[in-house]
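Supplementary Text 2. Reproducibility record for the structural model of the 294-residue chain.

All settings were left at their defaults, and a single model was retained for analysis rather than an ensemble. We include the record here because the model underlies the residue-level annotations in Supplementary Table 4.
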Amino acid sequence: MSKIKKAVITAAGFGTRLFPTTKVVKKELFPVIDKDGRAKPVILLIIEEAISAGIEEIAIVVQPDDKAIFKKLFKRPPSAELFEKLSPENQKFSKYLVDIGDRITVITQAQQEGYGHAVYCAKKWVDNEPFLLMLGDHIYSSKIQKSCARQILEIYQQVNHSVIGLNIVNSEMLHQVGCVTGNWQKQNSILTINQVAEKPTLDYARDNLHVESLGDDEFLSIFGLYALTPTIFDCLEVDINQNVRLKGEFQLTTCLDVLRQREKMTGYLVAGTCFDIGIPDAYLQTLNDFRHRE
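Retained model, structure tokens:
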């Protein structure tokens, strides 16, 4: 059984829903106040989540023009003049960032052709190993002692095949999310996935995606954390070679359903909250809720 040691974070999107701010600041660099009162860029919170789960190496997939920004954050200490102006606490934190940078590889997506394509750009770096996949605009807060990412990786260790983190959404959210259905292995916790659907209509979800024990208009959506086997790259490669697109882009969700058919796939209802900072109102809510989480 392979232990997952690598994580891929996709951060190559344009951030169109946060325009015009994302014209000058990547959404992955937006500040969020952590519990300790420190303002951290979103990407750092995601990396800390990965490290909390035991991840040793991290790849960030970015646009070519943004590579220098991420390298500056993690791989280059501030100038001597700036460093001297920092408080002793912030000087220590500056060194912490550089230490994190030793774990990080920055990969570029030459053309922005969808989430699935961004993931595929990490194929060579992943090197035929299972890996943790994380979104560059989602941060997480666990409701238990284990971080959300660690919960996912521990389920992977139990089942030794791909695991998708899940949460419960109502019908109003369906047009924004990928959804799954299946049969509970452990009630309201672990699910054998029978289908993965990208942004289904309400009628389709009612007819095909209802899961036992959920309310009539409640469904299981993808949480934004995945433990995937490298077979996902084979599935993505077929779509890319055959130019199979949805809404002009290469999608991950459709390939997840192909992966499910090739190998088993488990869903896990994460004991935690996912904060999506890629939407203005959700980012505003995150600024308050993430700071004051327990």
